[in-house]
Design brief:
By secondary structure, the chain is an alpha+beta fold. The chain has two domains: 2-192, no CATH class; 299-458, Histidine kinase-like ATPase, C-terminal domain (Heat Shock Protein 90, 2-Layer Sandwich), CATH 3.30.565.10. Helix content is 66%, strand content 9%. It contains 13 helices and five strands. A five-stranded mixed sheet has the order 1-2-3-5-4, covered by helices on one side. Helix 5 packs antiparallel against helix 9 (194-274), helix 8 (166-187) runs antiparallel to helix 9 (194-274) and helix 9 (194-274) runs antiparallel to helix 10.
Length: 458
């Protein structure tokens, strides 16, 4: 009975180690709460697995066949726990379990080779299963320091898995390479020929070659996507500048018209005042004052580029019948020494993208429910930006807390927000509640953000 219990504990330990390998690629994406929940669930299931394995071995006996069944099928509940607690895309999980299986097959092969070479007295019978388990765990733990960083950076970029059906082809590739060795493991004895062992080692080498190819291709794809994203951002900037230039041209025409009419205006004023018609003169002054105000571009702040962005997109919002309210109390952003792009320009680009997204979302709302609220203030020592707009359709948030979309040509706005957040070490909150989408961002003045201090909560 002690032998059976030891074997059950050993197999459960192997499956816990496999769960640890599957956890490593997602470690950076998990909150501390999710990590604790994962290990609570695994720790709760492990004693149950030990009891089930021990009962099964007691019922059918310890044989190579029963050992293989537990080794192959016992890991499914552990994988189900990982899938439950790590709510990431299924193709990424499939890819990781394939890579984990390849590694476990390699360790299993090395353990069997050591037994056959140095411990032939344990190469057959019941002793083989326990010796195989103990040496497997020892080799796994011995190689873990070298394997841990590999698995932490194992996942290719998420964009590769989002492409359908290419994402599934990539996800199934490692698992497909495992099929032949797994079938051999299920239907043959533990005593493998040297040809079998060399075949498994070569399999790992080919997996490494294929994986490197995937990584290189993913880097090329990521570079192409960055270039396309930059092109779209530049196109938006040019479009915004064209709109602002159009505004300036319209106002220039209005000024020319006012100058042309000024001579007539002064003549009428002179005539009214000479005839004592003061009320008519006051009405003429009021009308002319309103015309002059209508001909000027609103001054939201002292920064020309930020003022241009606000002028263009708030005007677009009004044209789209979107009710807009705004409050801008902004000091010029601090220029970064040696930086080719000023903070004003970075903020203007990001603000343009956010407002464009808000306007596009508002257009999808019923006419009476279109509204945008903007607040951009400097509250020493930090800047605070809040953009709210009505939007009823539920949004899907990605691991970085920002909305994600698979529609081609979309998502540039959120890329701009993420780039600004990373560059200025901003704190960002994006949420959707009660039919409102809200973006809150706050960051320190550039000269103060160079240190390690983080912005306090707004």
């Amino acid at each position: 009975m002690n032998y059976i219990l030891s074997l059950a504990i050993g197999l459960t330990t192997i499956q816990l180690l496999g769960a640890y390998l599957r956890y490593l690629p997602f470690e950076k994406e998990l909150s501390e709460e999710d990590q604790h929940r994962l290990w609570r669930y695994l720790a709760a299931w492990a004693p149950v697995a030990v009891v089930i394995y021990a009962g099964y071995f007691s019922h059918v006996g310890v044989t190579e066949e029963s050992y293989r069944r537990i080794s192959s099928l016992g890991g499914f509940p552990f994988f189900a726990v990982s899938l439950l607690v790590l709510p990431r895309s299924i193709p990424r999980h499939v890819f990781i379990i394939g890579m984990q299986t390849l590694w476990l097959l390699l360790v299993h092969t090395v353990a069997g080779t050591l037994i056959l070479t140095f411990l032939p007295m344990f190469s057959t019978g019941i002793e083989r299963t326990l010796s195989q388990t103990v040496i497997f765990i020892a080799i796994f733990l011995l190689l873990l320091p070298a394997v841990r960083p590999v698995f932490r950076h194992l996942l290719p970029p998420v964009q590769l898995f989002e492409e359908r059906p290419m994402g599934w082809y990539l996800a199934l590739l490692p698992l497909g390479l495992c099929v032949s060795p797994i079938l051999n493991f299920m239907h043959r004895t533990f005593i493998y020929t040297w040809t079998d062992r060399i075949e498994r080692l070569l399999l790992l080498a080919w997996v490494f070659v294929i994986y490197r190819y995937v990584i290189l291709m993913s880097r090329r794809m990521a570079a192409a996507q960055r270039q396309e994203s930059e092109r779209r951002v530049l196109a938006k900037e040019v479009h915004a500048l064209e709109n602002y230039a159009s505004l300036l041209a319209e106002r220039d025409q209005d000024v020319r018209r006012l100058q042309h009419d000024l001579r007539h205006y002064t003549r009428m004023m002179t005539s009214l005042l000479k005839n004592g018609q003061t009320e008519e003169a006051l009405a003429l002054i009021t009308a002319e004052d309103e015309a002059i105000l209508a001909s000027s571009i609103p001054a939201y702040c002292q920064s020309p580029i930020i003022n241009a962005a606000l002028a263009v997109y708030l005007r677009l919002a009004i044209q789209a019948s979107v009710r807009t309210t705004y409050k801008v109390q902004l000091e010029p952003l601090t220029e970064a020494s040696g930086d080719s792009v000023s903070p004003d320009t970075d903020l203007a680009v990001m603000l343009s993208n956010v407002l464009e997204n808000a306007i596009n979302a508002s257009r999808k709302q019923p006419p009476g429910e279109r509204e945008i609220r903007l607040s951009l203030r400097y509250i020493p020592p930090q800047y605070v930006l809040t953009v709210e707009n009505r939007y009823d359709t539920p949004l899907t948030l990605g691991p970085d807390g920002l909305p994600e979309t698979l529609e081609p040509g979309h998502g540039t706005g959120m890329e701009s927000v993420a780039a600004f957040r990373d560059k200025y070490r901003a704190e960002l909150i994006f949420e959707q509640e009660d039919g409102w989408v809200r973006l809150l961002m706050y960051w320190l003045r550039r000269k103060e953000s160079a240190g390690e201090e983080r912005p306090p909560a707004a």
